[in-house]
Amino acid sequence: MRIEFNGAIALVTGAASGLGRAAAVLLHQNGARVAGADRDMRGLEELSRETGGAIVELDVCRDDEIEAGIAHIEETLGPIDILVTAAGILQRPRAPDALPMAEWDRVLATNLRGTYRCCAVAGARMAKRGAGAIVTVSSVMGATPGPVHAYGPAKAAIMNLTQSLAAEWATRGVRVNGVAPGFVATPAIRRAAAFQFVNEDRLAEAHAQRRLVTAEEVAQAIAFLASDLASGITGVTLPVDGGYLAAAGWRGFDAAGPQER
Ligand SMILES: NC(=O)c1ccc[n+]([C@@H]2O[C@H](COP(=O)([O-])OP(=O)(O)OC[C@H]3O[C@@H](n4cnc5c(N)ncnc54)[C@H](O)[C@@H]3O)[C@@H](O)[C@H]2O)c1
Q: Which of 56, 110, 155, 186 maximizes ligand 1 atoms within 8 Å of its Cβ, making it the mutation to test the pocket?
């Protein structure tokens, strides 16, 4: 089913790469006017060559840049109808005694605080106008524990934030939902694999579908949640995880997993 956004204005953070880029491209293909925001101008310029959309350089760790970026988009394009918060960073898996607090702070500042601030600024404007849809980007690592003691808690907190902001603005026409992707071979995961922080084959094995999720699959779920097809849905975080969470309970029983039983 094709979703038609009819010129709705969508702001996508993290649009220069990976999941944010895939969401920006799909929203554009489905008729949205997309503004990409990121700290990586080269990636944004490439996106703009493909979509013809607006771009804005901003760091989601900087409140002033978020406020100025959102104000600039609304002044130049018009009111933001859709916000997708895909800007984020991964974390190298480490034991707590090897995880510097500076890294913990950086991961929380980018993934949680950055998401909150973008939602708070854009969402308040949407609520004032009485319409809007926000889609946050969490992770299966926010729903199940792993050796990422900054990243996992940040992603779990985004799920809670998604619910609390949904409840906050539900009667004012603003829906807030999220996606929790399984592992996706984005540039971030490819870099982590190149440094041997993760192994793509082992990650694929951990999904019930025995493969990684694609960025396009995550983008489709984002587009659905942002669209009027999801008009009765708010406060949920939808796993787009190839059965990663569903398979978790099998791992302690045998190496084979569900299909081979
Ligand atoms: N790749 C995966 O397997 C996976 C799985 C679950 C969730 N996620 C989440 O999806 C989101 C996107 O990840 P990705 O894999 O596409 O990574 P990516 O590195 O390919 O893309 C992330 C983008 O965010 C931007 N960004 C990072 N910090 C920023 C900041 N402070 N200000 C502005 N922009 C910033 C980067 O420049 C980059 O363009 C992240 O929140 C990540 O946690 C990824």
A: 186
- Residue 131 confidence (pLDDT): 98
Cα distance between residue 14 and residue 11, in whole Å: 10
Q: Is residue 256 part of a domain?
A: no
Supply the residue whose CA is at minimum distance from atom 35 of ligand 1: 87
Give the pTM: 0.97
| pLDDT value of position 137 | 98
Q: Which domain holds residue 35?
A: 9-241
The number of distinct structural domains making up the chain is 1
Ligand 1 center–CA 261 separation, angstroms: 36
| Domain harbouring 151, CATH code | 3.40.50.720
User: Distance of alpha carbon 139 from its chain centroid, rounded?
Assistant: 8
What is the per-residue pLDDT for 255? 58
Q: Are 174 and 131 in contact (CB under 8 A)?
A: yes
Domain membership flag for residue 246: no
Q: Are 154 and 104 spatial neighbours (Cβ–Cβ below 8 Å)?
A: no
pLDDT tens for residues 183-220? 999 999 999 999 889 999 999 999 999 999 999 999 99
Please list the ranges in the chain whose pLDDT falls under 70. Answer: 1, 254-261
> Is 52 exposed, middle or buried (CB count within 10 Å of its CB: 0-12, 13-18, 19+)?
exposed
